[in-house]
Amino acid sequence: MSGVGKSLITAGLCRILKQDGFDPAPFKSQNMALNSFITADGCEIGRAQAMQAFASGLEPEAAMNPILLKPSDDTGSQVIVNGHPIGNMSAREYFAYKTKLIPDIMKAFESLESRHDPIIIEGAGSPAEINLKENDIVNMGLAKMLDAPVLLAADIDRGGVFAQLYGTVMLLEAEERRRIKGFIINKFRGDPSLLDSGIQAIEEKTGIPVAGVIPYIRDLRLEDEDSLSERLDAPCNDSAAIKIAVIRLSRMSNFSDLDPFLQNKDVSVYFTTDPDELKKADLVIIPGTKNTIEDMALLQSTGAADALRALKGSTPIFGICGGYQLLGESIEDPDHVESGGFAEGLGFLPVKTVMYAEKCQRQTEGILDNEIKGIFHTLSGRCYEGYEIHAGRSFSAASAASPLPVIFSTDQDVYGTYVHGIFDRAEIAVSVLDSLASRKGFSLDLTDQTDQRILRGSRYDLLASTLRSSLDLGLIHDML
Question: Catalytic residue among 14, 236, 321, 390, which?
Answer without folding.
Answer: 321
